[in-house]
Each structure stands twice: as structure tokens, then as C-alpha cells.
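Quick start: what a row looks like.
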Amino acid sequence: MPRRGGRLLRLRRRALRRERAHPRPWDPNAQHAGPPTALLGRAVERAGSIPEAQVARITFEILRPIPIATLTATAEVVRAGRTVELVEAVLSDEQGELVRARAWRVRTAEVDLSGGVLPDDPPPAGPGSARPAEAFFPTGHDTGYHTAMEVRFSAGEFLRLGPATAWMRMRYPLVAGEEPSPLARVLVAADSGNGISGTLDYRRYLFVNTDLTVNLIRPPVGQWVRLEAVTHPQPHGVGLADAALHDERGRIGRSTQTLVVSERA
């Protein structure tokens, strides 16, 4: 009878050949960072001590791939204040930290802006005028981020190179039985900037983000979040994905992702 070790080696070689022929943008044992970052955003909001405040900026440092496993989110205020406060949060598994976040929460209050010159930023064409996504990247799973999100494109497509504009909304709550906060709705979508606007073929190149920064001038209204995204890879191996964020009423902020660009082995 053939040795079991030899059979396992042949199976690994076949899997490697399949991966080379049909590579995936990320490890099938890892998950999209959108929901995990939203969990950290939820922890940040709960840890905050200023009653009438919103997250104005939050940055996530992605320390290693996020596994499909039980994770723990913790947060604490590290710089308290009456008008602004800095909150730190950590997402961990049994091996240690996965993602670390720092967020500024800013108190909100009515301000008369009638004497200023404000930018003209009309509402964009809504998701009703956009088309459903045609296909998602191969993930190795029947269910996951691609089935948990509804995506409609006004320009571009997941598997089409170049800038893209997509409306995204959650099909399911982030936490069972709990209505997602406006911040969670933004964060679940925001990590998709480099995914919808890739300018390099993922079968030949990797363009992995090491972080995610989201600036919000106001929380979104409604379920839909719009990303108008463009990716800027550079030949020395560094890139940037940049996305303007809107809801159906207009601009809500911006997201950026630092990218490590490389050719596949």
C-alpha cells in the first residue's frame, strides 16, 4: 500500500498547482477585514465617555491576517477630554494581537456656518441607479463577505481593472440581534477600496493593505455606503488605495489604505 505521507504530498502538490492556476487575493483561512474592523469600531463607540460624540478619525493597523475564528475585541479611553477623546482598541485571537486601532471621538454640537464658504457637494446618484455586482474574487468559500454584503456598481467591477464606484450595504447584522451603528456600516465597506479599484491583475500581483484609515465628517444616514475608489500602485512596491465615502445625502468622509505591492512567486 502507498505510504500516507506520499499521498499527502501529492495532494499538497495538486493544491499548489490549482492555486497557481487560479490564485486567490487572500488566504482562504483568513477573512476580509471589513467585519473585524467594524467590531473594533463598535468597541470604540462603547468605550467612549463623551455622550454626544462621533468617531471623526479611526486608523486600523493590521498586524497579521485575521483568521476565521473566535476573536476578542477590547477598547479603552487613553486620552480623556470634554470635547475630544482618544480611544485605543485591540482585536485578538489565542495567538495575540491581530488589529490595533486608534480613534478620535469628537463632541458634536450645532454650529452656525452661514458666514462660511462651503464646498458644493451634491448628493450622488443613488444605489437604485447602479447595477448588481457581476462576480466576486474566488475565496474558497461558498459563504463569506461576498454573500454578507449587497454590492451595486455605478462604475467598474470587482474583476475589472481600474477605478470604481460601488454602493454597499450589509445583508446581515454585525452582531446577531443588534442593529449596526452608522460607524459599523461604514467600516464594513471601507476596507473594500483596494478590492473594487485594483489596477493590477490579482492573478499576477499582490496588493495587500497594511492599514485602514477612515475620516468621517458625519455619520452616514441609511443602510447604503458609497465608495468612489482609485488605487495608485508604484513600481518600487508601495501603493495607496483612496476612496471618497458618501451616503445617499452626500459626502461623509474618506478612507485610505497603504498597500504592499509585489509580484506573485
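That is the whole record. The first strand starts at residue 53 and ends at 62. The domain at 23-108+123-263 is CATH 2.40.160.210 (Porin).
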